[in-house]
Amino acid sequence: xxxxRLPALGRLSAVFGAAFGLSxxxxxxxVPVASAAPASIISVPIRVxxxxxxxxxxxxxxxxxxxxxxxxxxxxxxxxxxALVDALAKRHRVITFDNAGIGHTSMPPGPLTISxxxxxxxxxIAALRLRGPDVLGWSMGGMIAQAxxxxxxxxxxxxxxxxxxxxxxxxxxxxxxxxxxxFSAASDNDIGALLSxxxxxxxxxxxxxxxxQAVTGYPGFYQAPSSVDSAQNVAIQRxxxxxxxxxxxxxxxxxxxxxxADDVLTPPANTQKMARAIxxxxxxxxxxxxxxxxxxDASAWAxxxxxxxx
Length: 310
Known about the structure:
Elements: H1 12-19, E1 47-51, E2 54-61, E3 66-70, H2 82-89, E4 93-97, H3 114-127, E5 134-138, H4 140-151, E6 159-162, H5 176-187, H6 191-198, H7 204-215, H8 226-240, E7 255-260, H9 269-278, E8 281-286, H10 293-296, H11 298-309
């Protein structure tokens, strides 16, 4: 697991200093570490389940039709804002989990690809017997969600894509400078630089600070190791170039597509491109919001997602 370099955001130093000194909570088989009824996803213990594609570490909270959340580049399941997960868990059984090579999730053999991560997600869905869950993916997680909907059609009832782009080779990509800055920030564990790419400048001291304070409430907050960052970076590049067959497949399920108008990592022009390709889709663009639009106002996005999923 990875510690992050503290940003110069005032009292965040105290928060990070306390939270990042912890280690990842213990996991044992698919049995929870604690049995107390949680009031928030932060209190939900991490479990580990054996799937047909290796072990996967995950949390499960709420009840109702299952909703699987797929995290983006360099993130762990601790990167999800608790307010978003808690709001979704009021209507759904929400599953958060770690992508390949993060936490206690196995790394598949050979070069990592978006399709391999989609296959591992399908293996988790099968192991947990979720039976046609809804799926929400953010950033790289949205790429994995698209590949899942193409490669494992029966595993997705409805799809929610957040700040992402398609894998058909026609996506509007970030500038070379911003793409390089993202990988450098992740490799250097520089949370300040990451926040500046995820939030608009005028949101850093408010939404950015609130987000960091929220996610560091997870016991033993952790991120992907640098080796996984490198593997994910290559996988994203292959997806963007249209080198994966799943990126050219047809998505047939109803899809909600969201982004921030100021997204510099997955430019919002991609929302309309995906909508035209998918067909049965809705698009929402939020003003004065960036790549982390769903982090800026988690309650509003959760309400929109809940309405869409029904």
